[in-house]
Amino acid sequence: MKILSFIFLFSSFICALERKDVSITVYNQNFAVIKDIRTVNLKKGLNTVDFDETATSLINESVRIKFHKSKATILEQNFEYDLINSDKMLSRFLESQIKVITKDNNSYSGNLLSFDSQNILIKSEDGKVNMLSRENIKTVEFSKMPENFRVKPTLVWQVNSPSSSQEDVEVSYMAHNFSWKADYVATLSSDDKSLDLNSWVSISNNSGASYDNASLKLMAGDVNLVSEPQAYSSVMAVRANKALALEDAAPQFSEKSFFEYHIYDLSRRTDLKNNQNKQISLFNASSVKTEKIYSYDGASYKWYFYDNWRSQSYNKKVDVTVKFKNSKENNLGIPLPKGKIRIYKKDGDSVEFIGEDEIDHTPKDEEIELSVGQAFDIKGERKITNHQVLASNLYRDSYEIKIKNHKDEAVKVVVKEKQWGDWKITESTHDYVKKDKNNVEFTLNIDKNSSVTLKYSAEYKF
Predict the structure, then answer these.
(1) Over the stretch 62-93, which tens digit does the pLDDT of each residue have?
(2) What is the residue range of 130's domain?
(3) Which end of the chain lies in a sparser environment, N or C, as judged by fewer CB atoms within 10 Å?
(4) How confident is the model over 399-441, as pLDDT tens digits?
(5) Which residue from 17, 22, 20, 19 is spatially nearest to 270, judged by alpha carbons?
(6) Quick check: 55 and 209 in contact, CB under 8 A?
(7) Domain count, the chain
(8) Taking phi first (over 0 means left), then psi (-120 to 50 degrees means alpha), and beta for anything else, what does residue 275 get?
(9) What is the CATH number of the domain that holds 392?
(10) Would residue 367 count as lying in a domain?
(11) Is residue 203 a part of any domain in this protein?
């Protein structure tokens, strides 16, 4: 549909409030809190104040207003977000006088009868009805600007001031369609014993407003929201200006604890444009000690099989994880916001992608274990070799688990086994560790190009 040009035959004066400062705290739950400070001229008595350039996704119930000097009070607030466009203008002038000028400079005046995406119907004073193609229209003239139409989302206040003054007003509000997330790039050393970890944050602004020269904070943590308020704008813009690669850069955020959360404060000001995705370096850490772990969880069933033991299948794949501790002694020791970690490994002078995983919000001194993928050269076999019913509620089962190592180096594989009911292991070829009520682990050391077989029996009482 072609956009029309409009001429409004009226005069008016709109007093915009000058923005002095703006700060934004973005949460990782698709909203932000904006604090906007502007200068306002108040006269004694009743004032109408337009506070424009707010987010279309503003939650008007969240607005907090503070006058810095006077004791002015807000009597009424309206959030006007019915933004002007060609179809809305035409709909307001149905059965009213308009003037249309076509591209060949012909002029048509009369009452607007109807319109759609293709044509406009106008009835002139002599009774003639003209159907004009919107493709051929150059200008539409309207006699006035309809009430409550805005070019920008605007908070309109009725303010009662005890005196005339010029002062600063601080407005805080919540808005949807702001978000941020952390992304990490981990590069494993050639011997898999350490990694370098770089973190970037991606901030997305699809709120319907731009904020220039803003101070920026990122809140990490899960803030309780009673319900998800509805945004006034349902338009979700496509992210723009997305960076294609993450290079090493100097950290630009300072971190501090705040209530039960963590705040990351950008040390400089930045512009947050509408429909923009911005990436900023969070931190860099090098020589983080790591451990590569092979683990095998061969049971494909999730509950006890009882007498259906012969038909149970097993998993052949051995998982590979990388574990490290988020401690100061390990060149980290900072709260890590949740996000995706992409893992690379050095191959001479280049690096290759080997897998990715996600972490939740992780405090300092906690261990992190990343799932990388499955080992190509290590395979597992698992079977139930015997099943006995000792009583109506008592069973004994025997298992055989074989790990085959086709690598040209020795490996250590952790075999994970789930137990059922009131259980006990009656015999085993290898030592085990009870991890919790229902899980045990066996550690098998396997020479290069060889295999090791684990056998054990357990009794289950239900």
Answers:
(1) 999 998 887 888 899 888 877 778 888 888 88
(2) 86-142
(3) N
(4) 999 999 999 999 999 999 999 999 999 999 999 999 999 999 9
(5) 22
(6) yes
(7) 2
(8) left
(9) 2.60.40.290
(10) no
(11) no
